[in-house]
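Review box. Two proteins, two foldings.
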Amino acid sequence: MTELHLWLRHEPRATERRTPVVPADARRLVDAGATLTVEESPQRIFPIEEYEAAGCRRAPAGSWVSAPRDAVILGLKELPDRPAALVHRHVYFGHAYKRQPGAAELLRRFAAGGGALLDPEYLVDDQGRRLAAFGFWAGYLGAALAVLQHRGRLPAPLAPTTKDDLDAVLRPAAGDAEFTALVIGALGRSGRGAGAAFTTAGVEATRWDLAETRDLDRAALLGHDVMVNAVLATTRVPPFLRAEDLDSPDRRLRTLCDVTCDVGSPFNVLPVYDRTTDWTQPVRRLRTRPPLDLIAIDNLPSLLPRESSTDFSAALLPLLLAFGTGGAWRRCLDRFHRACRELGITEGESRHD
């Protein structure tokens, strides 16, 4: 591989325990000739010593701001507000290409410094299929939390766990009432994860995808007790739920989990809430008579940090080994430049290409 310096940053969000590269894959990158610097991070599921044993360099948390300009900064969730100008190439989920709140400000920071956002959501093959994603685990956790909430067993605050421990409380117990469940977007990664969690919970969920949402049967949707949305729209589509649906006297729906959390986007298919929930308060009541509870946590896979990180890292590894040489990275960079143009943002001459 060409000389490559990867810099794995600390995640400033206290509840973010995942990592895009696990120590075993870090070893493979180092063995292939890459330099990998790993920042100290108190909450990362894998301790810094495991990365050092894999041949990585150690650095203080937040030191990526002074990393060599050619270093590629790896992360998962939002950057801190400073510095105002971003000079590096950053691989992380920026959520900035659908006019979400704060998107323009973030892209201007990259333009000001000549850096670039390489958002894994847009790291796709030539058919537009995503190559590295946390979707299965997002769907699994979303459905699991919805089941536990509906059965009155969801703890708060939430805490990271393992799949074995989660499944132990997810399986049906004596006295659990039967209920109906619906997964929308059932054929995608998140939808398959949600379906798997419902199966573990002993619930045979109804599974909808494009064929069912093209001509949406709202009465059938509202006739389910629990619903998990796993559809992240990229174009405008009629919303699956509207405010008037929540007030319908025929609504049976009591628990709603939105895995996608596309709040603020003009493509949001669930424009019935205006803010996400979190680990401290995972549930928000949208209606009281009859009740309707919402779960909308935007880092669900971090509740299973080891499993989700290991899967994501395995998918990202071959892409990092071919960094800068494959069509997937070119498409990802082109999507960043296009987003800047769409917002009228002019990039500087020092930009990465």
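Next protein.
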Amino acid sequence: MFSDPLFLFVVIACLAVAAVLLLGIANFGKPGPDAAKKSNKYMRWRIYAQAGAVVVILIFVFFRRMGG
């Protein structure tokens, strides 16, 4: 499974989502308006990363069902 490049893209995409999520959560505890702006920016990035991960997962499933 790990030799499959598409599966590796799925893993990388999921790890990227987790990393951005952790950055956003870590920033929630910090005081000040700058921290709140950063947290919102990280959460926005998380949404984009999740959308990308969903697309990669759908492509993975599509090609695996086609027998590729």
